[in-house]
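Researcher: Going back to the complex we discussed earlier. I've cleaned up the inputs and rechecked each line, so this should be the final set. Can you rerun the prediction on the complete assembly and write out the structure?
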Amino acid sequence: MNHPVTRRRIVKWAVPGAAALVFPGWIAAGWATTAPKDALLYFIFPHNGARIKGAFWCRFGLRNMGVTHAGDNFPNSGHHHLLVDVTAPLDPNDPIPADKNHLHFGAGQTEARIELPRGKHTLQLVLGDANHVPFNPPVISKKITVTII
Amino acid sequence: MAGDVHRIERRHGDDGSQSGPARRLAAILAADIAGYSRLMGIDEEGTHARVMRQRRELIDPTIVEHHGRVIKNTGDGFLAMFDSPVEAVRCAIVIQQSMVGRNATLPHAQWILYRIGVNLGDVIVETDDIFGDGVNVAARLESLAEPGSVYISGGIYEQIKNKLVCGYQSLGDQRVKNITDPVSVYRVLPDPGAVRRARRSRGLVVIGALVACGVVGVAAFYLLGGRTLFSPAPEQVAGHPPSQAAATAELTAPTPTAPVPTAPPRGETLAEPEMVPLPAGTLAMGSNDDPSERPIHHVAVKAFAIGKYPVTVREWRSCVAANACKYVAKGEDDMPVANLSWSDAQQFLAWLSQATKKEYRLPSESEWEYAARGGTASRYWWGGQPQEGAANCKGCNEPYDPKQPLKVGSFLPNPFGLYDMGGGVDQWVEDCWHRNYQGAPADGAPWLEAECPTHVLRGGSWKSEPANIRPASRDQYDANVRYLTHGFRVARTQ
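Model: Rerun complete. Updated structure for the full complex:
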């Protein structure tokens, strides 16, 4: 619809600087919770380019940080947010939106059953702090593309 | 046809040979602006200019379109005469609905709201005035009318009840000064769904208003006077199932002087939410706009009461002060309390029920949608399209603050007299989340499960796009997790 191939290419290009792409106003952030520099957020499943039939279990991977409940202020821990087909950049100072494209896992979930309409979709994980605000530096995964068949 | 009658009347008026003044039966429409002197006090020139513009753009043409004529204009109102009661009431509805649209973009204090009374009577017609009891009764009905509403006499009601499929709510008999017999008074429930159309084109308004009235199919109402009194309407509109009934505690717009909610005069620390009783009725729940809203299904909702506003920070603080609610709310007193989990809301309800000895609870999802629709079947209660300045959302235009919700009651209420049913804060309902309505209950009860990790949120918030503040829009969230846009409103079984 909006040239998914082109979009994927942009994502590839941007991977080394994914944080800059998602958080253009990052420099302005002052009070976000800090995260260790080596924190890594990634998809265990699905992998980029996967073709999936029907609903699937999406599994979230996190290294060098812990998963906790939203509202908990333990250091070096946060909770998952799954961004589906989100193209707009996130505000680094604002809580991650909660709607049909921004799924929250504040109960500490590390996997979720996801059902999407047929076609190409992008998925991206963002770790949020106790108040659903992204960390500084942001802990985000690569944006992957999956195709539901 | 109506024009012919007019000419007959004119001939009488112009013809000096008649012995005595001409008498005729006419539908008389009396209207005035509520709180006119207050409006003039705020901004004399601005108010005057707006009133004149409305008269020129809306009122005069609408009267002409309905084959009526203006008898006289007063500073804050006007008197008009119609050959047909149906046309007179149609005209009144069109004016009121157009005014809702015109007010929607303005702050409360600047709303211009007309009170309209329509009576059928035998009157003496002079060239530039009319006289008689019929006029006095119309003026009296007008003074009884709530700002923004239309009151009609029994005589008008008898003429239009089977022709104009709107809602009619009997308000009983009223004594009128200097008139021997009491006058039976009815309130007309216009359809807010026509607002948008009314704004777009006056030409379409008549059809629009009437078609929409038919859709609403309002059949039962309850007494407004006492506010808490509930009585089924004595009349039902033939051919329309009473199940589609819609009722209202406070029709269309509030008085401009009505204070934004303050604590009820209860004293102490307990600020009990203001409740609006709703009658039993049915709704076509859901929509085809999103898979989660399908299938559209009919639900019969029992009579219940629901908060007029979302629970406010002030009300929440009473619970915190009583050590019954853990979450310490931020924000000003009249803001809706936000950043609450479903479990937080349950703490408040348990405390409020215990403190008031009444059984407060969350509304069920179907009760919430019934209340939000306010008897309408359109995408939004005011019509099919998002409307600027109608609600607190991202893209709903000013007033807007990206950081926090606006105070409760900042926008016009829906036809049930409920504020902020869409936008402002997302509102928790009792139901567990189900991804669509396959297997949903049809009796208005909450749809529960033994295990219920996520609950339903309704109404969208100040951070939502206009599409997500529709009455049918659904969202979900973990029951024990707080999020900054989540609040709630209370409900009570009658």
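Model: Worth noting: The longest strand of chain A covers residues 119-128.
Researcher: Good, that matches what I expected from the previous run.
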